[in-house]
Amino acid sequence: MSGVEPVCTKLYFQNVLLPYLKMFTDFLSFMVLFNFIIPVSMYVTVEMQKFLGSFFITWDKDFFDPEIKEGALVNTSDLNEELGQVEYIFTDKTGTLTQNNMEFIECCIDGFQYRHREDSSELDGVCVTDGPVNKVQQKAGTEREELFLRALCLCHTVQVKESTKNGRDQIDQVDGLGADEEVLHPPQKERGFIASSPDEIALVQGAMRYGFTFLGLESKNMKILNRNKDVETYELLHVLNFDPVRRRMSVMVRSKTGDILLFCKGADSSIFPRVRQEEVERIRMHVERNATDGYRTLCVAYKHLSAEEYANADAGLREAKLALQDREEKLMDVYNQVETEMTLIGATAVEDQLQDEAAQTMEALQVAGMKVWVLTGDKMETAKSTCYACGLFKKNTELLELTLRTLEDGGRRREERLHDLLLEYHKKAVQDAPPVKLGITRSWSVASHGFGFIIDGASLSMVLSSSSESNSSLYKNLFLQICQNCTAVLCCRMAPLQKAQIVRLVKNSKGSPITLSIGDGANDVSMILEAHVGIGIKGKEGRQAVKNSDYAIPKLKHLKKLLLAHGHLYYVRIAHLVQYFFYKNLCFILPQFLYQFFCGFSQQPLYDAAYLTMYNICFTSMPILAYSLLEQHICIEVLLDNSTLYREIAKNAMLRWKLFLYWTALGLFHGLVFFFGVRFLFSNPALQDNGQVFGNWSYGTIVFTVLVFTVTLKLALVTQHWTWINHFVIWGSLAFYVFFSFFWGGIIWPFLSHQRLYFVFANMLSSVSAWLVIILLILLSLLPEILLVVLRKPRGPHARQKKQVQSNVGGPQSSARPLLMRTFSDESNTVI
Amino acid sequence: MYSISMWKVGRGRKKKGRGMTGKGELLHPGKDLSVLLTSLFLCSPADCAIKAMVKHEQEESPNRPDNTAFTQQRLPAWQPILSAGIVIPGFVLIGLAFIGVGVGLFITSRDVQVLELDYTGAVATDPCYKCSDPSIKDCKCTMEFHLDTLFRGPVFIYYGLTNYFQNQRKYGISKDDNQLYGDLDTFKSPASECFPYDYDSKSKPIVPCGALANSMFNDTFKLYRMVNGSKKEVPLNGKGIAWWTDQNVKYRNPSGTPLINAFNGTVKPINWPKAAYELDTTDVYNNGFLNQDFLVWMRRAALPDFRKLYRRITKDEYQAGLPVGNYSLEISYNYHVLSFKGKKKLVLSNVSWMGGKNDFLGIAYLVVGSLCVFMSIVMLIVYAKFKFPEED
After folding, report:
1. Residues A509-525, mean pLDDT to the nearest whole number
2. pTM for this predicted structure
3. Which of B169, B305, B360 lies nearest to residue A681, judging by beta carbons?
4. ipTM for this prediction
5. Coil, strand or helix: which one is A311?
6. What sections of the protein cross the membrane (chain B) (predicted)?
7. Any alpha helices (H) in chain B, and if so which ranges?
8. How far is B241 from chain A (nearest CA, A)?
């Protein structure tokens, strides 16, 4: 008995367990054999491409700003290609779109335009005290002019920042020298103003430019220096504060002569009803023209108050100020009573100076198919005028407003009104709009008379957190759909977190579009972090945004090149990189797979271990890396000039199924050609003229040689931008392969247990048949590529080329798209 | 249209902007403009030079990115322009060249003479049927054949095996390269890959070890020419059938004279009738691991149907080839293949510059060449129809 048991166990092991064990080990062996099809080396190459590629952004001298002496900063290397896929841009307004730097542009006094001439650059210190009035054709009476300028000088809440001690001394000195016109300039130059709103500073500075300088407020006395260099003093009686509902502010002053004057400035809509109508028309024209130019306009009016009137007003104001209840409303009442029957003297136009090339940048981005949303904490009017100024809203853009004002218009509950408005806008913008298929290129002219949507923070929070759950999601959807159908969206009065909320809303919407946030201040950090790509402007508001961003650029205008050129190129590069990698590994492993059918499924590798290892590391990695760093299938200048080119890669156009299948089919085809081409050759393995036969390693080496050459030449066909690096790397890789094969097969390697490849390569090259089959298979593999191009050609629109001709006059990279070069990248462009 | 309007806008803004910029920036619009202009019209090394000049006018700053062609992605680049004027003639040329080569290959391959003799003995009518039973030892059989024309020399004799997976992985690695390199240490302890052909039943090491060596083809052939009813042996040359490097570098006999001394304490592979050192009784140097038949066998075939070089006929009057006449092939039938449905054949062939007979290459070249020509015609039609849109 004791002898039988071990025999039984052994039999059991052999008959029952062994097959399973064999199955398992076979499975593992095949895993080892085929693991190359998953291109692990791709991750390395992709990472290298991204890392090295991001240097090109840092290095780009176009991003260098001489003002801050800094270039672009890349905080991540992971998002280069996302820059080419941006669909939504969320931009901050102040400091991003605008420089937050108001400038007085022109004024209109009594209907006559006073435009400050630019030729005199006041920033150089050459003040224009003698200039402007001379140059302005005398139109309005001097009295009116001076009244207007006094109004500008008095009607504000600006404080004068004391100059430094040094400066003061200097002034004293020059004062001592005599009140000569020219030496009076330094104090003006060094005068700093502080105000809650930069507009007011701009107005005061504007007045200064015309000769009236506000010297400051000293114990309720406002001092101004008039044109004759006389100091005028006014007693400040009351300030009727600005608030966004009244949209105007006033001051009451008592002049030396005892006159009590009320100066009022405010938005045209709030001033015009309160002035005598006969003056309105003359000025309205100017105001409207200025507004359409994107300037922030204010109207200035004044009123003589009789002592009696003043006493009333004074009493009312004091009483209201002391009121314990409803103080605001009572004050408002008094204000409204006082600010009536005024006389309109003029209007001002102040420009919130846009960033350099902000309008062009925005237009280019819109033409490129990106939707620009302005998220700002500013009030609506300001933001709106900026949107107009930088061309986000055009003249004929129909604005859909969803703000507290519109919500309160109907006199009904806000909730109901919100519901109605949303539905109404949705009907307008979404349902009635001409159906626009996604991905289809809309011409930019169509886009120009679209809808603009304006929402403010309060309304947004109502939309996002409606009382009932069902309404909330409905509102969100309506809101999103409306916004997505608008060419530009303006969200004003946003809290920083609301900015992020909006970004998140869009980011998670259908199709999960790629979002980009750009901002300069700490209040933009949340949205920069929320968006896929966060861009910080190296602005004046600290480094918070820069530190939290993925990319930091000095100016808004750099966004254009970052997206249109760098983003576009990197997207195309990485798309090709990824697909090429899968392709080259597919046709690498497919012959090995097919070989299993001819070797009894014994996991016999077709290629030598050295080739298996080196293929992805040395033989084929460098050309694609160089390609993915240097390729410019379209010249950078052309990319910048034709924003529409960006649309051609939108929505991940180059990594679609169709193209993936194309590359896969190509890989399969090549793999089949390689394997079976050599297979048929080896039907008679006597390939040498001395009658000797080739073995399995020769077989593998021939396949591998064809493979390396084909795969590299395929990349050469795709490459459209041959720098010396490309040449070096492509031909160098092939040369290296040949060199390595000789080297590897030329030595008996002491550390190897099998000298499989000893002289296999050299022997292969001594066979004419091997040469011939290698040439044949390489050519055969690359033929369909060319055939495809030829057959596709008639279908491809030539518009794209014409575009290039237009913008690329005389450039050596002319639009003559070479036939053989019109390979993959073009197909993707023309098909979609 | 679009670019023009952009341009206008740009200029408008510039004008306005000038008043606002500070002194340091005054150069800015001008620089922008010149850079824009140069970049618009130039894309060559020349513009790099111009740009460099522009750059130098400004004071340098430590943070300023290097203005080199590489960092600015402005390396002079060549874009291959393969217009129809190049592609179509190129294709025609390539096609014609391929057709030419194809015709040459085809004719060459056609002229190669091949005679295949299947001597497996699978069917009862076969002369070797009696030998196909593995139990019969030292069986010999004879096949007769007739040559109608001169079989041009030099004639190569191959043996061919079918359904024989010499490329099986485990079979293929079942050898010890160090042993075959003459390393005496491995004679005592063969590599583990050789299992189960590393030690015999008495635990004596097998040299050469492993399945590959053990399964060496050991049928032998003798070729007789029938001259006037008598058999005249055709001398077969066993030299030069293996790769020169295999014989001279890759494989080495162990040191020891005579060779038999080195093999002390080892046994021959189980299937071998004779030990490695007595494979060739006629030539001392053709023994051991340097025996050319052994070397040929050890170079594994790529596919399950393969042929290997057995002998060459290069001597005497047969240098010019086998003359017309009757021949008799005497086979020492030792190698049994029917158990795995294999087939054995003997192949007489002469070779050309491209090696043995291979119709595939010639046909493939003709097909691809014609394809090229055909494609160039298609292209020509396409281009004629669409008026060479590339070349206006």
Report:
1. 88
2. 0.80
3. B360
4. 0.85
5. helix
6. 81-107, 363-384
7. 2-18, 27-41, 45-56, 84-111, 169-173, 177-180, 185-188, 211-214, 244-245, 259-262, 292-298, 359-385
8. 6
